[in-house]
Amino acid sequence: MKLPIYLDYASTTPVDPRVVAKMQECLSLEGNYGNPASRSHEFGWKAEGKLLKKPGQMLLLWLIAITER
């Protein structure tokens, strides 16, 4: 099936399936859905630990996020 051309990337963008798979780990009760900046509870500690395992990749995501603002 041929997909239509999508030109509204300022609104939203398609997400790579690999990113979706990793993000699903952080979006459920079984995953690391806590706020990594919250250091007063276990949910935050686990989320921060997940980020610290991949610092180079997280830097890339952070840079992408700040350019979107």
Task: Please give the structural blueprint.
Blueprint (H helix, E strand, L loop, with lengths): L16 H8 L17 H11 L2 H13 L2
Q: Would you mind describing this structure in some detail?
A:
- By secondary structure, this protein is mostly helical.
- The chain has helices at 17-24, 42-52, 55-67.
- It is elongated.
Runs in which pLDDT lies below 50 for 5 or more consecutive residues are none
State the order of secondary-structure elements, H for helix, E for strand.
Answer: HHH
Distance, first to last CA: 34 Å
What's the overall geometry? elongated
The helix fraction, in percent, is: 40-55%
Counting helices, strands and paired strands, the structural category is mainly alpha
The number of helical runs is 3
Give the tally of β-strands. 0
Mean pLDDT across every amino acid position? 76
Summarize the structure.
46% of the residues lie in helices and 0% in strands. It has three helices and no strands.
Key terms:
69 residues
